Structures are given as structure tokens and as C-alpha cells.
From TrEMBL:
Coiled-coil annotated spans: none
Annotated source species: Fannyhessea vaginae DSM 15829
Cofactors, names only: pyridoxal 5'-phosphate
Name of the protein in its database record: Alpha-1,4 glucan phosphorylase
The UniProt record lists the keyword Transmembrane helix: no
Gene name of the encoded protein: glgP
Pfam families: Phosphorylase (PF00343)
Record SUPFAM superfamilies: UDP-Glycosyltransferase/glycogen phosphorylase
Reactions accelerated catalytically: [(1->4)-alpha-D-glucosyl](n) + phosphate = [(1->4)-alpha-D-glucosyl](n-1) + alpha-D-glucose 1-phosphate
The protein's Enzyme Commission number: 2.4.1.1
Stated role: Allosteric enzyme that catalyzes the rate-limiting step in glycogen catabolism, the phosphorolytic cleavage of glycogen to produce glucose-1-phosphate, and plays a central role in maintaining cellular and organismal glucose homeostasis.
GO CC terms, sorted: cytoplasm
Amino acid sequence: MCGQLWERDYMASLFNDTQDFIQQYRQGCESYYARSFEDLTDTQRLYVLSALIAKKAKALQADQDPQQKEVFYFSLEFLTGPLLDNYLLNFGIRDLVENGCKELGVDLDDLIKLEVDPGLGNGGLGRLAACFMDSCAALGIAGNGCGMRYHYGLFRQAIKDGRQVELMDNWLEHGFPWETRCIAESVIVQFGGQVVRHEENGRFWFTQEGGDLVRAVPYDVPLVGFGGKTVNNLRLWSAEPAEENFNLAAFNNGNYAEAMRFRSDVEAISQILYPNDSGEHGRLLRLKQEYLFVCAGLHSILRGFEKKHGCDWDKLSDFVAIHTNDTHPALCGPELMRILVDEKNVEFDCAFEIVRNTLSYTNHTVMPEALECWPISLFRSLLPRTYMFIEEIDRRFHDTFPRDKHNWHDLLSQTAMLWDGCVRMASVSVIFSHSVNGVSELHTQILKDTTLHGFYELYPDRFNNKTNGISHRRFLGNANPAYSALITKTIGNGWLSDASELAKLSVYENDPSFLEDFEAAKLNDKQRLARYIKEQTGVSLDPHMIFDVQVKRFHAYKRQLLNVLKIMDVYNRLLDGKGFTMHPTAFIFSGKAAQSYVFAKEVIRLINSVADVINNDERVNQIIKVAFVPNFAVSNAQLIYPAAEISEQISWAGSEASGTSNMKLMMNGAWTLGTYDGANIEIAKRVGDSNIKIFGLREQDVVNLRQPGAYWAWDMYNNDRIRLGRIIDQLTDGTLNRLSGGFESIRDELLTNNDHDLVLADFYAYVQAWEELTRSYTNRHVWNHGAVHNSACSGYFTSDRTIREYANDIWHISC
Ligand SMILES: *Cc1c(COP(=O)(O)O)cnc(C)c1O
């Protein structure tokens, strides 16, 4: 559709021409399925096409400069989304492949729609990792991902009677054509057993004996950069029994059940992706996952280093940077020390120096309950030798702690790795790294002031900010063909490689013909989403309504509840007939709640119950509609972001570390309705006050309201029985009971639990801000001007910019 707009001079010549492509595609069908193209299902055709592109990509990996410093990005999640469309664009062969498919009698877009989302991540954190990999490759940085190959993703979400229902996400069912199993590069990983001390001629060393041996097998997925010049590698580890340790005795005795039990215990390690919400840690299997991918990943890096540079371990940080995404890979520090000391004969102090120079850490949350901790007893019995390195570094940390400060005892209790019977992973991450960063200016400030304040006093130079970014190629280029074609027609296609060129759009902010074209593209995207929503949910949305969107994981702090209380208020006021009018609006939600997160699941049920009442009430359903899109994932996110006109970013101030959907939505020309939180603040700074709607409590207000006795949610209820009180009553008075009953627990959260997330405290400011914003929608010039202005200012939020900052400031790679 966007046709030649994607052509580039340096287009990789993977295929000589369309005929060459067709011939290779046909050959692929024969070799994968021993059938001709015509005899394959579309799913099989997609598989062969993807495998063909993957093979081409892997061939390009071979010739990369061995002297280049490499980055290894350790993350337990990579939410890549579907890859084919993105890689065709990056290679500059989308047209050629589309034409070839047409000649073969199949529509490329139909194949692309069949690609499943790899079940490799939860949400923002995993998507950030995927955007970073895209940017590394686009910028020519040798940036490799290191992660886990989960057999099952989180879950597929369906909605029944308004409730979230969790179905198995068997994303590998039809195979994953992008991966290559590399059994020759397996790593044996040891769990449990005992540490034994050896001594000879005054020299001593340790070994870990016994326990279970697990084989970590890597699966490699190519990461294709824009322009097709750089292809990096995403290495995902899978757990299998090691022959060395497979229960052979049981097997030989014919006790297959016993032998297989061992197999499935081992395979369980890479079987499932854990939800990332609080309350989910402390599970042994999760710690096994964390250790397996760290241990295997490090061995694989050191093998590569040894091949290129020999055993000159002092030079490790000259050629290797290891970045840890949150604390999940925190074991990288102690484990790299263990390998250097035990397996490479490096002296203890040197090893610590090497490790610190090589490692860096990104923090993702300020919520104390979400900071990862493991009971020492469990940790030590699973990883006895690795634990000794934490213990020894912790001992030295205590010994050398600066006791001249008056508050030294507080500082020590905030920062020690071993405290209260637990291993504190954030402390491990900071102590073994040379750099600690937050993901927005506000978040980094909060880290310095509170969450990691002790460390900031000790090591101020380690702290820096790296405001998150997003792949503008995927989330504007791939996701929004209509708008990106208009952008390219207007300012050329340079914005694809250099997002700062989006600023050129500001010249057209007042150009009536451009604004008209923008509106047409937006309408096209809204129609496309309306079709999808009709198909998925049966709800019809009039594309001329305002599309007001909140799509993200369900979490109390993100306050989807605030949004739905607003919708109930609007509904009540429309029915009151006291002259309240508004532009017709569709409220669109999407997102999953963790299986065990009862409150978040109740909010989903509430939204669906409100939707049921409103959508079926003919008095209002031409004016408001509510839609819940099931199973939020990168694939349907790419349909939702382009169609949005209002971007709801309403977390309480100080809670959302950065947010990235706020960036994707502004880039696609949505207005932000948000709190002064995370990266919203930086969006506001760039677009200016008149092109964003900020409301509500500021971070300091929240801190003040959290002082004992400062806030009484019951007062909010008692002081306004007409509006707010009425809405709260409706939660339990039967108004919403038709689908699956009332909402006592939500009422309890708001009143009895004193409204921890300050939903009631921000209610009036929020509704008023929303009203003012939607009222301005009728002035089409002002609205479209602001929307385009948002796109024009969004270039800063490309992950290319973020990665350039990581490269220069943290990884010491110039680009
Ligand atoms: C961007 C993205 C997120 C993160 O959204 P936030 O609003 O920043 O929490 C989550 N899930 C998917 C699929 C995304 O693409």
C-alpha cells in the first residue's frame, strides 16, 4: 500500500527480482513441506515465507566486524510482536514480496495477519527490550538480546460474562520459523549440591559438587536492522535434561515414569512466562529461570570472547557490555564473578573490577513491594557457590562502609544485599554495576530521592537517566500505513532512519490541506479498528465518534478504575437530562490482568459490565459506547494506537516509571489526557501546555496525601452523594448486576481501604479535564493542529535516541 515510499538506495538485494523471489519461495515450500505452494495452507505459506527471510537474515549475520564492541541485553522478556512485516520493511523488500505473492495468487497482508505474537513478554518492560533491539540493529550497534524461550506465553485472554478468562497461550503450536536451535552451543547449568574446598601447595579453590545438571539449549532469532545492513542475534534459552544427569538408572530399569518425571521437572524451567506484577516472586521456579538464562548467557558470551580475544579477561569490558533489564538478570554480577574466579582463574579483586566495568542496570519500578527479594535459605541451597560471592562482597561492603556519616546505619540498612534473611536483588544489581539508570526524568529523580537514595549518597556518579523510547518504524511505519504514507509524501522518507525529521511536520500544522489529509488517514485507521472490534466483540463503533483509548496492563496504579468511574458519571449526567451534551465518544479499553490479581480482574469485569449497560441503552448509545478489546498484544496494539484520538495516561503521579504507550499514541497523533507522571511530563515539555491535557495531583501532592490522616476517602463519598457518591452506590445497588453481579470489592477498595490509588481524590480534576478536551474536538482545525503537533514533537521519543544515549554514556560505544 505504502509502496515505493519504502524503497531505499541501499536496499539489500536479497532477491534479484520478483521472479527470483517466487522461485526461491516455491523451492522453500518443497523443502519444508514436500508440497507445492498451491497445496499449502496459508499458515504453512506464512511459515515458509518467514523461514526464507530468516535464512537470508542469518546469512547476513556472518560478516560482522569481530573487533566491534558488543552489547548483550539481558532481559527475561522480549515482546517482539509479529516479525515478518517489520523485517520486510527493514530489508526494503516489502513491495517485491507483495508483488511476488500476488503473482502466486495470495495477498501478503492476509499472510501477515496470521502471524502469532510470540509469548515472550508481559507488557511495557518486554516491549522496551524489543524496541531497543530494533534500534541497536538500525544504528549498526552489535546489540544482542539474551532471554528465555518460554514454551507457553502468559495466557490468551477471553471475556466471558464480563470476566477475564485465561486460556493457554500455545504460541509455538505451528512452529516458530524465525528460530534456529543451536544444540552445539548448549551450556550445562548446575543447581544445588555442595561447595567443596580444595587446597594444594597453599593455593585453594572451590568446586560445586552434586545437585542437578540441566542443559540450556539456545534458540537464535535474527534481529534485522533498518536498511538491512546489521543483523544482530536474539538468543533464547530453553531447559532440557542433561544426559550427564538424566535418570539413567531409572530409565534402564524400565522405570520410565520416574525418568520422565525428571525430564518434566527440568523442562518446567522454561515452560512458562511469569506475570510481572507484584506478589509473584518468591517462587523457586522463577529463580531457576533467572539463574539458567544468566549462567548460560554468560558462558556463551565468554566463549565468544575467548575465540576472538583469547583469555585476556582484563579486556572484557573493552569488547563486551552487559546490560540488565530490571533485577531479573541481577545474578549476572555474582555469576560472572564465579565463572571468572572458579573457571578462568582470575583473582577475586580483579574479577570484581572486571564485572563492575562490564555490567550496567536499568531500574523499572519505584514501588517497594515490587522490588525483588529471595529468602537466603532458598537462594543458598539452589545456588550455593554463586551465593558465596554475594556473601563475600556483602562482607567487604560492610567492612568498608563509610561510618563517618551521621546516618550511616540507615544507609547501610537501605543498601546491603543481605538483609532481614533476604537477598535483595536491586542492591545486587547496583553493587555489581558501574551504571544505574531510571527510565524517565521523574523516575530517576525518585530513585535518587527515595527508592535507591542510600546508593545515591554512596555512588552519585553511577546514577543517570535514560528516558524510554519506542520503535517509530514499527509503531508508526508498520502500524499506520495511511499516516506514514502521508508523512513520507510530505517530508520525504528520511524520518524512518532519523525520527527527528518528524519535526518537519510542524510546518504543516496550520496547512488546511495537510490537516484534511491527516483527518482522512485517522478516519481510515478508525474504520480499520472499528471493523476489528466488531469482529472480535460484536460491538459496533461509529468511526465518527471520538476514539478515547486506554490500553495497557491492568494494574491499580494505572487507574483504569478512574476512567470507568468517569464513564459512569457521563452516563448518569446524560440520563439526568439537565442539558449535559458532548461529542459522541467511544471509550476503548484493552489489557490483561495477572491471573492472581483479583482486584485488577474485577476492574476488567466492571468495565465490561458498564459496557453492557451503556451499549444496550438506546437512550445514550448513539452518544457513548464502551468497548473492551480482548487479548491485548503487540499485533492488535498496532491497530489500536493509530486509531486513537485521546490517549489516557492517568496513573497517580509518582507511580508509572515512564510509560511507552503514551509515546506511541502521541506519535500517531493522539492528544494525551494525563497526570504529571513518568514520561508524560517530558511529553508536556515538548508539545507545550496547549497541546496536552494535564490534570490532577502532582507527585508531591501524592506524598502529602499519603501522610497519616491526610486523606479520608469516606469524606469524598459523603460530601457528594449526587455525583460521586451515586456512582459508588451504583457499584453495589444492582445497576450493573446483569452480566455477573455487583462490585462490592471495588467499593471496599475505594472506601474501606481508603482509596490507596487516590481515584476519588483525582476524580473531579480528571472529569473536568476530559470535558474540556473533548469540547475542543468540535473545532477541527484546533484539534488536528494539536494532533499533528504531537506527531511532529514525537521524534525525541524514538528508541533510536534512547539507544544512542545508552551507547554513548553507559556502554561506551560511539554511534
Ligand atoms: C507499549 C506496550 C505496552 C506498554 O504500555 P504502557 O501504557 O506504557 O504500560 C504494553 N503492551 C504492549 C503490547 C505494548 O505494545
